[in-house]
Amino acid sequence: MILPILAQEVMIENYDSGIDIWIILPYDLFQFGNHEDFAEYQISTQILNKQNKQVAIDERLLRIPKQDWLQQSAIPIWRNYQLGYGDYELNLNLRNRNLGDRQSFSRKFQIGSQFTEIGQAFVIATRDGFSYIPASLALAEVDSLKLHHSFAVRAEELRLKLDEQTYRFAYPQSPFELDLKTITEQDSIGSMSLALTEMNIRYNLEPLLYRPWFSFNLRYSQEDQLNQLRYIASQNEWQVLSKVSKDKYQEAIESFWRANDPTLGTLRNENRELFNRRVMTADERYTIHKKLPGWKSDRGRIYIKFGEPDQITSDAFPIGKAPSISWHYFRLNRTFIFVDERGFGQYTLRNKEDEYIDF
């Protein structure tokens, strides 16, 4: 089966030097044999043009160590390609050389004449000779922790803030690379931000660290992902999505998120990342049994739509009636009441009409 590599898992940047493609693979994607300290994967990357003709291919061997410190991380695969304007399809094939299992991913993309003004800032850690995207900025645990950032603007200054300390770099050149361990003696960095200045324009960036949503496409089928959008899609948007054929699911999902991107022109979609986090959190909190995953439950749906309630009150052991939980959203002037009618922990929304009322 071929799965799509979605926008949050592959980042494509267009520069004068060529097309930079970053593929982000979560560590939990890889399988290890019993008593094996490493997993060896043959990785093949193929690019086809609109006529389905191969225009680029790349093969490499990736030897991944089995380490606890890699549990919350992702493996970046970077490559620069020389491609002309047009429509393309990226095919990624992973073959486990030890166990024999294979996984294939696909992503369609388009290259135009416009360069990527501000690319994604990546943080790449290296430990024991292996590079990965970490979940935190723990300097003491790694051999190096490098910031990598490419851009097309003629930047006059790059400003890097690590916690309360600010570092300035005049007229930075792309790609900009910096090992954070060379400028600070801290064992760990709590917060990090990046800003580029061009003329009177300032571009603020958040460097990419590992987040659980990297695994979103592995956990949910395209059909599930389409149905999840029903929670937040407008009536007109859902009328279009509900009529999409299965072979167009990926295209429809990507189109929806392009239309709901709060920061057009950047590689990340903050709305999509927030939505994915909420779906995964709903599963973790509200799944009762396999036939009803948390995101399909009433509490899961409300959580995905409205986020964390401002206050939760409960009547867990009422006399003569079913247990209930109330979620209060003061900022929205809404309260949702969930009742466990059968006493098995499956709470259903009692006041469904309040879900759709505009106050």
How does this structure look, described?
With about 350 residues, this protein is α+β, with helices and mostly antiparallel strands. It contains six helices and 22 strands. The chain has two domains: about 1-205, Immunoglobulin-like; about 210-355, no CATH class. The chain has helices at about 215-220, 220-230, 235-240, 250-260, 270-285, 300-305; strands at about 1-5, 10-15, 20-25, 40-50, 55-65, 75-80, 85-95, 100-110, 120-125, 130-135, 135-140, 145-150, 155-160, 165-170, 175-180, 190, 190-200, 200-205, 310-315, 325-330, 335-340, 350.
Layout of helices and strands:
Elements: E1 2-4, E2 10-15, E3 18-26, E4 38-49, E5 54-65, E6 73-81, E7 86-96, E8 102-111, E9 122-127, E10 130-134, E11 137-138, E12 144-149, E13 157-162, E14 165-170, E15 176-179, E16 188-189, E17 192-198, E18 201-205, H1 216-219, H2 222-228, H3 235-241, H4 249-259, H5 270-286, H6 298-306, E19 311-315, E20 324-329, E21 334-339, E22 348-349
Parallel strand pairs: 1-8
Antiparallel strand pairs: 2-3, 3-6, 4-5, 4-7, 6-10, 7-8, 9-10, 9-12, 11-16, 12-15, 13-14, 13-17, 17-18, 19-20, 20-21, 21-22
